[in-house]
Design goal:
single chain; alpha+beta; Recoverin, domain 1; 2 domains; three-stranded mixed beta sheet; 7 helices
Length: 356
């Protein structure tokens, strides 16, 4: 098997150089195309991705070998995780990091400023000692999910390092709220709950994630999120944080827009089931399968699967995963963590194929 892999690598290495050269030449061509530089004109990378995704017949955000419209010899090297599909991320990873095709207009807000709009606190030794060890949740599971089940439109579990398409968090996607929902009244949106007793150790009213290409909208989109960190347990003297990354997948245009949607305050002690904030859901149909909360545990700078919920909660969440799981080559069982490495297992019991 190792010999076969080595042979495959030796064949694909020169092909990869051809792929990169092909992409760079395409990028240059799009950068020089008429109209480039005008207001609202897509940049070269976006134009390249639009051209690439013309073959995405079922609009699922990925290209199969049958949909691939470029020279067939390029498909294998571009399918970097060898799952039979090419995504926008895989294309972008082959492009030069430093590009002169980015818009040169100044930004009103600089998301790279250190700790910009992100508030954190370190628990005292007494506060940390008052919390249970994380292994407590191996046998005393939480019956409180982070949102009500009836607002969920789709989802997926934490996909560990031993899965062919890892993702360091569960996702819960949201249905469109009722007509009564308005940004002027944050409580008219879906509430977000504390999954356990603990302390609010992180409050982020505004943070920009990297721009991504949305094949459904055929454009680059900017994701400004907000979020919270709930320290609810400890491990070897370190805090264990339940991380809520709340991602409407839009740019609201105002760094204070999300502040009213965060009810909990930094340093506040909260009880399980307490409302921490609300999920802003944009009134745009195209965001229905994008607006979500990404949630996971963090300890000692390590991403960990949030496998702290009862079997009943896990199974209720699983019933609502819907179409999100159809993108994977294998059926995902009811769990909060799938194909986990040892370090992603919060309970220290080694690698696990699944944990509730």
């Amino acid at each position: 098997m190792r010999c076969l892999d080595a042979t495959r690598e030796s064949i694909q290495r020169p092909v990869m150089k051809y792929v990169v050269a092909f992409l760079v030449s395409g990028l240059f061509a799009f950068a020089q195309a008429p109209g480039q530089g005008r207001p609202n004109t897509p940049d070269a990378i976006t134009r390249l991705l639009i051209e690439f995704f013309k073959g995405d017949k079922n609009r699922d955000g990925r290209i199969s070998e049958g949909e691939f419209g470029w020279p067939k010899v390029m498909f294998g090297p571009m399918d970097q995780n060898r799952d039979g599909f090419i995504t926008a991320n895989e294309v972008q990873s082959l492009l030069p990091r430093a590009s002169t095709t980015r818009p040169s207009s100044p930004r009103r807000y600089n998301p790279s400023a250190p700790q910009q709009n992100r508030q954190t606190m370190r628990l005292t030794q007494a506060q940390l000692a008052s919390l249970p060890d994380i292994t407590h949740f191996a046998t005393h599971k939480s019956d409180q999910f982070l949102v009500d089940m009836d607002v969920i439109s789709a989802g997926h579990p934490y996909l560990g390092k031993n899965f062919y398409r890892p993702h360091t968090g569960c996702h819960v996607y949201f249905k469109q709220p009722g007509k009564e929902a308005t940004p002027q009244k944050p409580s008219s949106y879906a509430p977000i709950y504390a999954v356990a007793d603990g302390f609010i150790s992180n409050v982020t009213p505004w943070f920009q994630l990297r721009p991504i290409y949305d094949s459904r909208l055929r454009k680059m989109t900017t994701n400004y999120r907000y979020g919270l960190g709930l320290t609810f347990a400890r491990t070897a003297g370190h805090p264990v944080v339940f991380h809520y990354s709340i991602e409407p997948m839009i740019n609201p245009g105002d760094e204070n827009f999300y502040r009213p949607f965060l009810k909990a305050k930094l340093g506040q002690r909260v009880k399980k089931g307490e409302v921490l904030g609300w999920m802003y859901t944009p009134p745009r149909p195209e965001t229905d399968l994008r607006t979500h909360i990404h949630f996971n545990l963090m300890a000692k700078s390590q991403f960990i699967a949030p496998t702290i919920f009862t079997k009943e909660v896990t199974e209720a969440f699983h019933k609502r995963w819907g179409k999100m799981t159809e993108r994977y080559a294998e059926e995902l069982p009811a769990c909060m963590g799938y194909k986990l490495s040892a370090e992603e297992n919060p309970f220290g019991t080694g690698a696990k194929d699944l944990l509730h």
